[in-house]
Amino acid sequence: MSFNKVTLLLGTNLGDKIKNIENALSRLQSIGCVIEKKTKILNNPPVEFRSSNNFCNIAVLIRTELSPIQLLKSIKEIEREMGRTNDSRDLGGYIDRIIDIDIVMYNGLKFQSKKLEIPHRKNLYERDFSIRLIHQLSI
Questions:
Q1: Which of 43, 53, 74, 113 would staple 13 via disulfide (CB 3.0–4.6 Å)?
Q2: Bridge-partner residues for 57, per DSSP?
Q3: What is the end-to-end Cα distance of the chain in Å, rounded?
Q4: What is the SS3 assignment for 43-61?
Q5: Which residues form the 7,8-dihydro-6-hydroxymethylpterin-pyrophosphokinase domain (predicted)?
Q6: Which of 53, 57, 70 is nearest to 100 (CA)?
Q7: For residue 34, what pLDDT band results from cuts at 50, 70 and 90?
Q8: How is the chain split into domains, by residue range?
C-alpha cells in the first residue's frame, strides 16, 4: 500500500461556508483520504472576479492511495454532490461557488493535462491567500 502526500486548497463563498468546508473534508475522508494537517480558515475577498461574497479558504495535507486523475475525478464528484454545477475551466472565468477543491501539489509530481496542472501554478505562486495557507502547512 503506497500513500501519496497531496496538498489541497478548498474554498467556498456561498451558504454556510464553515459547514461547506467541514462537509467537503468529511467527504474527502470518506473516499479514503487521510487528513494529516490543516490550516486555520482564512477569510478573504474573491480573486480574479467580482462578488460581494467573501471566501473562506483552507489548505490541507492529505495522504491518499488515489492517482492524480482518480483524485481529481473524486474531487469533481464531491463538488457536484455538494451542489456545484459548473467548472471555471468550462466557463472561461470564475463565479461564486459552494465549494472548490484544487490539487495544489501531489508528491513532487509535475503533470499537465487539459483538466489538471500539478503543481497548481496560480495557487502555489500567484495568489497571496493560497501562498499564505500553503506556508502554514509547512510550519
A1: 53
A2: 11, 42
A3: 28
A4: EECCCCCCCCCCEEEEEEE
A5: 8-136
A6: 57
A7: very high
A8: 4-138
Look at residue 103 and give its three-state secondary structure. Answer: strand
Domain 4-138 has CATH 3.40.109.10: no
- Closest Cα partner for 132 from 59, 62, 38? 59
Tell me which residue of 90, 98, 32 sits closest to 65, measured CA to CA. Answer: 32
Task: Express each pLDDT in 45-84 by its tens digit.
Answer: 988 778 889 999 999 999 999 999 999 999 999 999 999 8
Query: Grid coordinates representing 92?
Result: 472561461
Can you tell me whether residue 67 is helix, strand or coil? coil
Per-residue pLDDT reduced to its tens digit, 75-130: 999 999 999 877 655 555 677 899 999 999 999 899 898 889 998 888 877 888 99
Residues 6+ positions from 65 with CB-CB distance below 8 Å: 1, 2, 3, 4, 32
Q: Nearest CA to 79 among 20, 16, 30?
A: 20
Residues in contact with 125: Cβ distance below 8 Å, sequence separation at least 6, in sequence order: 131
